[in-house]
Amino acid sequence: MRIWWYIASQYLKTVLNILLFSLCIYFIITYMEESQHYFDGYEVSNKIKFLYYFWQVPGITIQLMPFAVLIGGIITNWMLAKHGEISALRAAGLSMMKISIPLICVGFFFTLTQFMISELILPMSSTHFQRIKKVDVERKKNEVVFTESTWLKAKGTVLHFKKYDEQKQELFNVEYFKWENQSSLKQIVHAKSGYFDENIGNWVLRNAIVTNFDISSYISKTEIKPLYVTNVDFAPPKVLNQSSESNQLSYWQLNKIIEDAQAAGTNVSDRIVDLYFKLSSPFANLLFVFLTIPFALRKERQEEKYIGIVICLVTALVYWFGNLALRSFAIKGSLNPLLAAWIMNILVIFLSYMLIRKLDKGQ
């Protein structure tokens, strides 16, 4: 157990150092770029600049964490092999799978950490970052956050709007259609704005121009109502908020948004795919641990280990680009979203397991 703790602690320290170094390099390069092409167009204090980058840390950490785990695994395994510790453990009768237990535990730790950051910290930090960027840096009004145009469907009615103020829950440039049955249009309502009444739980249109159609006589009658209550009883889905990208939301937030969007008749196939990838992507940390075991330790004292390290890095890149391609196919409907999210994980874990078994038998 003591040797396992030693291996795990060495691996953990290496990954954390690489992650911290990568974050520093990223923000230094980003600041050098944005100070010339972004901040120079605005009057921004040092405090705002600090907060601008501070609230980006969780999101960037999630992106860099799997590669830090990968590079850390290569370095840790390389150093253990170089000092003969791996050979000593094998001579004591331990298999590669048993030697790898502390590495796998660290991989689980970073998998869980990434998921927790994504669920608990990232939604809040992304909101703060967007506010800092839009309001404090670009001097835009905080309340003006509009969604794209969309349609909301209810029983026998359809409501269309051009813009939506999510914070005030107000609609703008509204059209409301009511049918007598599936083929007969009964009423059309036009309004410049509307609001969501919390007391009755429905959308209410202001200064509505109501046109009623008499199906029997084909004569229309128009009247103006100060307030017109619709039967649409749900808010526009937040998934349409231009600033609310999938990676800025927790799994449960995204799932709720998808349910609301589907109830409204909105196509959110890309969000559904993102939901599955939200569960599968943290496991890249664990998969990359398995990758380092067969490649970084293969014939420790021979030149082939360098080839193994290169193959390890290339495999990681193939994993990421493969996921991008699979996501694209899933959004187009050519591939099941669940399969697209997990197929690369399954292939990598199977390949790593076979190579580890081969390594055990060969040495």
From TrEMBL:
GO terms for cellular component: ATP-binding cassette (ABC) transporter complex. Keywords: Cell membrane, Membrane, Transmembrane, Transmembrane helix. One of its GO terms (biological process) is lipopolysaccharide transport. It holds the Pfam family LptF_LptG. It is a multi-pass membrane protein. Its main location: membrane. It is found in: Cell membrane. InterPro entries: LptG/LptF_permease. The keyword Transmembrane applies. The chain crosses the membrane at residues 12-32, 52-80, 101-122, 275-297, 306-326, 338-356. It comes from the Bacteria. PANTHER family: PERMEASE, YJGP_YJGQ FAMILY, SLR0882 PROTEIN-RELATED. This is LptF/LptG family permease.
